[in-house]
Amino acid sequence: MADESSSEDKTEQPTGRRLEQAREEGQVPQSRELSTFLVVMTGVATLWALGGWMAERMYRLIRKGFTFEREAAFDHTLLLERLHDLLGGALFTLAPLFLALLVAAVASPILLGGLVFSPKALGFKFERMNPIKGLGRMFSTHGLMEMVKAILKALIVGGVASMALWSLRDHIFDFMTQPLEVSMPDFMSTVAFTSLLIASSLGLLALLDVPFQLYQYQKKLRMTKEEVKRENKEQEGDPHVKGRIRAIQREMARNRMMAAVPQADVVVTNPTHFSVALKYDPEKMGAPVVLAKGRGELALKIREIAKENDVPLLEAPPLARALYTHCELEQAIPAALYTAVAEVMAYIYQLNNWVGGGGPKPEAPVDLQVPEGMDPGSPD
């Protein structure tokens, strides 16, 4: 009962990871009926394509086998050589058929389950030797279905073969009265036709069995809601661990940003809520780049570092808010802010000249124009 309730709880479709694990363990959908159909159909196709050539060679081998000189009847060495030649000729004649059947037998499982090599599936498992579990599999629903399929296969294939042979009974008996060179090609054609009918009946079974096997495979790998949640957590990671990792990443990015503030040409402030550090190198940059930005305590820290390293501060609330909102770290400012930032950089250039002892002290720009829609407004 516990197993049944557990099976009923498995209502969720298998995840990609579950399917991957099943393949690693060698569990892939398989259909014996599809494999049987492909092997038989391959044999039929080979007989249709090479039946005339094979019949001619077999005719020659049979004539050669029943024709020998008097000396060969009393010399076992010659008999063995003749037997060797006949067997070699027969194997060479049947080799294309055997090769085609081998390729079909190897390739047919790949059509449904794909190419899989699983060392785990080759490992020894003691539970496979457990007779109790073996009996359980025999009397399980799967075992019952396999028995029904076997009976159905025997009825269909046996019925088709019986009807084909019965309808061709007079033709088959005629082979006994025909010369060998005439009956052999006719016999090969009859075998190919009968095999085609049998293969067609196997194809009908394969059409019924493949969807059933795919359904059983998916049903076997179904998962409970808890298993899906647990697997998603394993795939995505523990939320607490991920949160801690993100916090560490933010801290590292913040430290890198703060280390870049001393390299800035100017820090534009709100003056208390926002701070944005800008740098412009005409030889390397097409436009000024944001080295650091922050709000609240982080903005105060940026201004503090700027003062310690003699980086000029400029109060321009609308521009500071626009830069903070629309600019990314280590990225150039948007084109819409070029004019306002150009005035700031011109002021910084004049300020540096004045500090170096040249010219009058410049006036800080006021009322810098920010395009409409760029300023998110004062947070006050």
UniProtKB/TrEMBL annotation:
UniProt biased composition (Basic and acidic residues) = 7-26
Has UniProt tagged this entry with the keyword Calcium?
A: no
**Keywords for this entry?**
Bacterial flagellum biogenesis, Bacterial flagellum protein export, Cell membrane, Cell projection, Cilium, Flagellum, Membrane, Protein transport, Transmembrane, Transmembrane helix, Transport
In terms of Gene3D superfamilies, this protein maps to: 6.10.250.2080, secretion proteins EscU (3.40.1690.10)
| Gene Ontology biological process terms, A to Z | bacterial-type flagellum assembly; protein secretion
Q: Tell me where it resides.
A: Cell membrane
Q: Which InterPro entries does this UniProt record tie to the protein?
A: FlhB (IPR006136), T3SS_substrate_exporter (IPR006135), T3SS_substrate_exporter_C (IPR029025)
According to Swiss-Prot or TrEMBL, what is its membrane topology? Multi-pass membrane protein
Where is it mostly found? membrane
Chain segments carrying region Disordered: 1-28
Question: What is one term from the GO cellular component aspect held by the record?
Answer: plasma membrane
Q: Domain of life, per the record?
A: Bacteria
One Pfam family linked to the record:
Bac_export_2
Q: Which residue ranges traverse the bilayer?
A: 34-55, 147-167, 187-212
The yes or no answer to whether the keyword Protein biosynthesis is present is no
What is the role of the protein in this entry? Required for formation of the rod structure in the basal body of the flagellar apparatus. Together with FliI and FliH, may constitute the export apparatus of flagellin.
Q: Which family does it belong to?
A: Belongs to the type III secretion exporter family.
**Protein name per the record:** Flagellar biosynthetic protein FlhB
Question: Which species is this record about?
Answer: Pseudothauera nasutitermitis
Gene that encodes the chain? flhB
